[in-house]
Amino acid sequence: MSAATVSVPQAQDQTPTGPSRRPPRHRRRPNRNAGETQQEPQVDGAIQTQTRGGRRGGGRPQPARDTALAMIPPSVTPLDQTQGGANNAGRQGARSSHNPPGQPAHHHRMVQGGRQFGGQLTVENENSNQNNSAAAGSVSHLHANAPEFRPGHPHVQPAPGARNVRPPQQRRRRPSKSSAPDISTRTHEDIDNGHYECAICTEEVRRNSRVWSCRTCWTIFHLSCIKKWSTNEGSAAARQDVQGDELPPARQWRCPGCNLPKDSLPKFFTCWCEKEIDPKPLPGLPPFSCGQTCSRPRDLPKKCPHPCPSLCHSGPCPPCSQMGPTQSCFCGKKSITRRCVDTDYENGWSCGEPCGEIMPCGDHICTRPCHEGLCGACEIRVPARCYCGQVEKAILCCDRGDEEESSHSYLAEDGVKVVEKWTALFECGNFCGREFDCGIHHCSKPCHQQDIDITHCPRSPDVVSHCPCGKTRLDEISDRTRRTCEDPIPNCSKPCGKLLLCGHECLQLCHQGECPPCLQNISIACRCGRTTSLTICHQGTEEPPQCLRVCRVTLNCGRHECGERCCLGERKAIERQTSKRKLRPLHSAPRQPDDSFEAEHICTRTCGRLLKCGNPDHRCQELCHKGPCGTCREAIFDEISCHCGRTVLQPPLPCGTKPPPCRFQCDRSKSCGHSQVPHNCHLDDESCPKCPFLTTKPCLCGKNTLKNQPCWLNEVRCGEVCGRRLKCGAHKCQRQCHRPSQCEEPCQQPCGKELITCGHACLAPCHSPYSCKEDRPCQHKIFITCECQRIKQEAKCNASRNSEGNIKKVLKCDDECARLERNRKLALALNIDPATHKDDHIPYSSETLTMYQENVPWASAQEKEFRIFAANPAEKRLRFKPMPPHQRGFLHALAEDFGFDSESMDPEPHRHVAVFKTPRFVMAPMKTLAECTRIRQSQRASTATTGSLATDTQRRMKASNLVGDPYNGYLLTNPRFGLTLEELRSALKDAIDPKSGITLDISFLPSEEVALNPVVNTPGLLDRELEALLTSHKPVISKSLSAHSLGTLQLCRVDGSLNILRRETDSGAGTGWSQVAAKGAAPMRFRRPGPVEGKNAFTVLSLSKNKKRPEVKRKESVVDDWETAELIEEEKERKGSEGSLEGEGNNDKDKPGSDGENESREETADYKGSVAITDQDRTVSFSDPGGRAMGTWAEMDDEDE
């Protein structure tokens, strides 16, 4: 076979027509069927284009796109249109790949050499197609594991069973960090490539992250990280000290990137230009960009009026490329237009030429280069002369004063009078010193304007006419007349009277010169204004006096007091505190949290507290302040590692950095020698987990050795009472297992000796070996009873050596005592045993009890409502909420039993029952429905037991099959009235030997019975062993109790809550399922009660019509096959029970129904429930019309409890 040459033809020559122009809509999955192995022809060319067909198993053929058709080699020609037809382009053509070989609808497109190209390439001619039809038939489609086609290489098809091995994919190289020249591009590329890390958490910042960017250093952080950082105390910037009444500056935080303070806290995630909140990551846009124009004002390198025209970007905006406005220079001679970045909008520009403006002096011109603002003062020096004419020099033009014309005359050496004139410009600062016309005195004024004529002397006699104070003429003071200016001026005898600086008048006599200081005594307040004192006037002006009062105002730091004497700010502090305590109106503005303190009460001490880093050398250096100190500003340049040294923090680190948590296992060894519990490495201040291994250790008292004790437990206690004899000699240590030297010394136990006065135990602390003093009243509780012992009152004994206390006190009997005594005599006369007499009257109808058992919780709630209504005499009407007919029937029946009238009102579904009190209502029944249910249950059980034909031997045999919990205590039934705890203890003390190791704990039950719980000192005693021990002690204890007439003793089973679970007098397993488990154990004897006339709720004592029959002991018979005999007896019992139940059922049918209204009977009849009574297990169950079980007799006790 000749080799095929593959070339790249032009697209227009190989473009197929017809349906093949449709582009593919789906990618076709490769067919995994293995074909025949065929030789790959050698092809010369550069490119091979492989196209994919349509969907697998159906659909239209999916030819390649036009761009792919341009790569078809020349050896492949399109199929003849007449052969393929337009009909093959549809859905049938796509299905042709599944046709068997040889069908005309199935066409293969092959190249020379038999290579199949699916439905996209055509064969070169018909001859080659016919020659290769066999190969084409065997290969129906492309193989999934076909090797890659390479021009010039032979094609080797893998074996049919060869596995398709995917060539290893080359790992894509991760781009390196960006090296772009600007910050924006570097940031965008690093975020896209995963190279940008948050400086706080060191995690990568991705396109879908929520970030925050600093506007100073342009560093990007995660929003959650920067929020935590900004609120952390360590990020707070240092505050400047506030002076005076100024408010302190707001809190600032430092950026982690640039460490510069920031005012606003980061709150939202926005785009770079802050126009959009929570921007979505859009493809084609930079990360976190909103896609809008940036439009941010440019501040760097300087402010610019043009907003940024770039797309929303990170980092600083690029420099402005626009032209700025035309600006004139400062002098206005030139103007220029520059680029915006070169234009100085704030300062303007200078042309550099001389200003040329006239100076403020009006004589000179400004020679400075073009400058901003005014030209300023003229600094040209000009010659000038002072006003007095003594100084002549060159001064600055700006220092010239007012121009004054000065002149004076003098005699020249030749005796000619010369007049000199000049224009004075400044004051020299010297005294004038010019002689007056007297030629003796000189002018003492500072430099001033001079006149040509000489000034007349001010001390001349013609000028001075009064004394120095000006109050008296000179001719009135003295007859001597002044002739010259040198004659003294006389003083008068009047006070000076001139006003001093302090406001007082001068009290000195008329004098010459300055007045002396004020010497008046005035009352001057001290510095704080609290005290006043008399002092000389001028002393108060120099320095105010200070009192001895110490200021106790708290300084602004809140830690120190002022402590100054005569504090100037104490009064202000009191006013501030007073205004702070005043009540303010609700609509007033909130008070500032930091009130302005006085300057005197600003604490200027150094804080000096220890910083959080814990280093004793690092203390707070700020001024004393409130609240916690800031973080330590120092740094650590040493490595900080964990205990094992495998986790290290590299410096620099903030001072106070704790060792890092380590993920490796702790390598510390235990002192006990056991292996370490696997746990992570930790610091030294944290202890390793306790050793969990179990060991054998002796207890503290040394009596026992305990096994399976934790290794870490050092003090092991066995729990036994110490029992060592104390030093007092009368008591033993009652503490549980302890060290030998830790007994109760000195003894603090109660004395316990019997008191002579009352016989009670002494409660005073141990005073052995001394006798009891008995000088204080006995504090034991006793019961004071009446003569019949019905009324009892608890009181303290109060017996002492000097008083009998309450031992012999007796209460007075009341009417109830008389009634009980009358009943006792009546019962004695009628031969009634009160111990065995029971009130088994049921004040409710059987219909009421039956409906009660159907829904006990609901019926009990309704009974409670009835009893509350009956107990309140003010209420006459009770209305219930709407309810179903069967529930209304129960209310009607219950109202009839209570003696109420009932009526149903309103139509359905709002029909309800209203109950009214009538004259026939006396009081509510004494017994509850639950009690009556139990009475009826016992009556039925007794009735069934009476008809039983089982013998005593069979009952004894069945009772032996019962398996119950062993007895664990005693029960004292029918206790004597007014029985006290002391009486019981005294009787038990005589009956129980102290050496037997058993004591009884006495508990009075609510049922007026007494439970005696044994306390045995023998540990590990089994329940059966305890029962045997109690059984052995029972005769002695019962004999002692009977001798004192305290009651009847029997064995019982008691739980932890003092509930009697089982009694010795209980017959068999009771009723219900317990009786089924017991297989019909021996029943209790039951005496059927006689009928009670009337429907009164009270019961009276009456004689029983059925006399007691003496029990005849039956002779026990022994059978050979006891199992068969037991089955026979059970069958007889079942038949007898059925007969008794049928008789009872007939009696119930004969009973009259309720006397209520017809409506209540109808509603009761509407509820067609069923009652099933099974004699085998004495289980009575109720069901509703739907067949659901409503309850059983055996469940009544549990529900009532």
From TrEMBL:
It comes from the Eukaryota. Residues 1146-1166 have a biased composition (Basic and acidic residues). It is found in: Nucleus. Residues 83-95 have a biased composition (Low complexity). PROSITE patterns: R3H, ZF_PHD_2, ZF_RING_2. Its main location: nucleus. Residues 856-919 form the R3H domain. The keyword rRNA-binding does not apply. GO terms for biological process: negative regulation of transcription by RNA polymerase II. Pfam families: R3H, zf-NF-X1. CDD domains: NF-X1-zinc-finger (cd06008), R3H_unknown_2 (cd06006), RING-CH-C4HC3_NFX1-like (cd16492). Residues 195-261 form the PHD-type domain. Keywords: Metal-binding, Nucleus, Repeat, Transcription, Transcription regulation, Zinc, Zinc-finger. InterPro entries: NFX1_fam, R3H_dom, R3H_dom_sf, R3H_FAP1, Znf_NFX1, Znf_PHD-finger, Znf_RING. Residues 198-259 form the RING-type domain. Residues 1-18, 34-51 have a biased composition (Polar residues). Residues 22-31 have a biased composition (Basic residues). One of its GO terms (cellular component) is nucleus. GO terms for molecular function: DNA-binding transcription factor activity, RNA polymerase II-specific; RNA polymerase II transcription regulatory region sequence-specific DNA binding; zinc ion binding. Residues 1-110, 144-189, 1129-1201 are annotated as: Disordered. Belongs to the NFX1 family. This is R3H domain-containing protein. It comes from Glonium stellatum.
